[in-house]
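Open question from group meeting: does this chain pack into something compact, or does most of it stay loose? Before anyone orders reagents, we agreed to write out a predicted structure and look at it together. Recording both the input and the output here so the notebook holds the full record.
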Amino acid sequence: MQALERGEGPYVGRFAPSPTGNLHLGSLVAAVGSFVDARHHSGRWLVRMEDLDTPRVVPGSASAILRTLEAFGLTWDGEVEYQSRRLERYVSALEALRARGLTFECSCTRRELGANTERGYPGTCRSGPRHPGPTATRFRVPDERTVEFVDRFQGACRFDLAAAGDVIIRRRDGIFAYQLAVVVDDADQGITDVVRGADLLPSTAWQIALQEALGLPTPRYGHLPVVVEPDGSKLAKSRRSVPVDPANPAEGLIQALTLLRQTPPPALAGEPPAVVLDWAIRNWRPDRLQGVLETPLPVV
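Structure tokens returned:
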């Protein structure tokens, strides 16, 4: 084990699933990557349920995810945090941004913005909502703002935040959006290292901007390759997007580690999860992930 070279305290990582169903392979890969990286650096590993999007939450899935993590030997430190119990913290953050003039209300619907999804939000309501009725709250992005950071796995990253546009931080239905909640939660939990899927890499720019606006620390980021089909299509939309099998954890762990470009030896097959994870922690090679955004499943 080793400690990361950091100016601040010891490593604290986290896994933050949304309880919208059972744990699938893509999420298992992210969980294994974040867990092994944390333990390899003698760090703590927390679990947080991102259950703010109540219309999508499936009753019982949070406990099912936790049981699956336990079956795979992915034991967490401390108590599980639930975003739905932290609404007052998001209210405080939103009020702080409003007080600084960094938000505005937006009446645009998805249909109205459909043609602009690739170009980012065009600033339609920056001077005030265009229509009466419910509004979303957006974080006002500076007209000229580039966010640069070094991702532990993807290297130097640069995003034109102005081109991405003003991100929603409170939805029209009143639900706080992911971008604001994750920033507040990571700061409150003392997260030093965020290890997650590369599908969230573009969100990092908004999150860093929000951290700066709220006076919160910015953790180190490491974005793992996203699991895709051999043709590059999303796993979530394919026939192989099925829940992982807690009854055979060694097989699942070995598959996840292989997709993370590690090389678990065949002798680990059938071993208890603790043995597989002990090997992974001791032999973790994150350098093999450098610049890898996607990891395809084998052809069947």
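Observations to bring back to the group:
The longest helix spans residues 25-40.
The chain is about 30% helix and 15% strand.
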